[in-house]
Amino acid sequence: MSRRGRGFVYVTHLADARYYAPGGLVGTALRHKAEFDPGKGWKYSNTNYVLAGLIVQKVTGRSFAEEVAPSWGWAAGQMVSTGSGLNRFRTALPAGDLLPEARLDRMRTTVPAGYFGPGARYGPGLVSTPLSCGGVAWGHGGSIPGYETRGGAAIEGAPPMSP
């Protein structure tokens, strides 16, 4: 198995590509003191996505890339799909078609998250963004050096937003 299939490559400039093993990333995160007690604050981090990728590997016995998608960003939230596939996903998730209601309710339990823009709120893996029409879009985005995407769907049957 190549190292690329087992870890995360971080690039600030193409000439400076560095490989980071998932366990090393988690170790780095754990060496830092928490900025607040659990439930007392919020700050975005990809650490939980790295942990989720490690769990996928442990449970399946296969690399994250083999199970989900080959990406040099590894489990830090990257998805490989088509625009129409993402729109189906973005519409089905907030409509309650993919998860039990209790799990979706937990994702919709949000805290203020100005990191994602004015009025944005964040729940586990889901961002709510106020719309100029008064509605709310639910979704998520991501960025790795050289790429950025944002997308979501307005609830109550409104059409999905374009990435």
Automatic annotation (TrEMBL):
PANTHER family: D-ALANYL-D-ALANINE CARBOXYPEPTIDASE, D-ALANYL-D-ALANINE-CARBOXYPEPTIDASE/ENDOPEPTIDASE AMPH. Pfam families: Beta-lactamase. This is CubicO group peptidase (Beta-lactamase class C family). Coiled coil: none annotated. It comes from Streptomyces eurocidicus. Residues 23-67 form the Beta-lactamase-related domain. The lineage of its organism: Bacteria, Bacillati, Actinomycetota, Actinomycetes, Kitasatosporales.
